[in-house]
Amino acid sequence: MENTDQLTHAPPLPPWLEQELPWRRRMFTGGDYPMHFIDEGSGPPVLMQHGNPTWCYLWRKVIGELVSQPVRVIAPDLIGLGLSGKPRNAAIHTPAFHGEQLSKLIRALDLEEITVVGQDWGGPITGLAAALNPERVRAAVFANTSLRVPEKAPRVTPFHRFANIPVLSDLAFRLLNFPLPVMRKVQGDPASLGKAEMRAYRYPLRRFRDRTAPLALARMVPTHLDHPSIPHLTRANRWAREFGGPVELVWGCRDPILGRALGSNRELFPRARVTETEAGHFLQEEVPEALAAAILRVTSAGQGEEEPQ
């Protein structure tokens, strides 16, 4: 049963944005900071988690594909992003912190038989939440993310190398709202992020004081084997290796950040069905139908079958 004392209505959005997100939106107040989330439909829950620097708006096309289906779609905003609370202390941003916040939402909503869906940081964060609630998770879909812990010095992308340059990266992320200005560059089709889409992505980070999380999340990515994120990610990695439910991988192969991570995720989930696309990093904008189809396949897998005698 839901803990209704920890759930309230979400504040209104500007009309131009409300029409893009016409579904039920709620606030969860039982965590360390308020968490905003979409909660629409009825049926087996599908918990979809975005990454950096986006918010639940990223899932709107996928949600549009799913709302007519017998599933309940739940799409939270990570703390520090979207319409969730925005702490100013960068040190609170660890994989464990975000996994725990998502776990608290799962328990407050009393979700069972969950299909977890994660992209970018949403992958390991849902993995950590699943590790805290293994009996509640039934299936998974992962897209352009990485749940594998590096066993040798990780390959550091130019983006993450830049994010770890003191002062310069602080100025870029704070003053220029980085990496929003370069989101198009990681897409298979740059036109998939037009002026209207970028206006929506900028909206939650329009104030200078609210821009702590994007840099903190960028710095959470391991750049060496002694990185403080490694112990937390090890737990998500362990859950992934032990998980026995249905899994699908949907990949944007033109992603310069995590396109090559498909191979390591195949190793984690050797039985997973894989859908390769020509999309980029934010593949929800380019191939929402492929993601929705994968979600519906794993959600329905095994349903209606007789139990073995």
From TrEMBL:
This is Haloalkane dehalogenase. It holds the Pfam family Abhydrolase_1. Signal peptide: none annotated. PANTHER family: ALPHA/BETA-HYDROLASES SUPERFAMILY PROTEIN. It comes from the Bacteria. Residues 44-286 form the AB hydrolase-1 domain. GO terms for molecular function: catalytic activity. It comes from Microbulbifer yueqingensis.
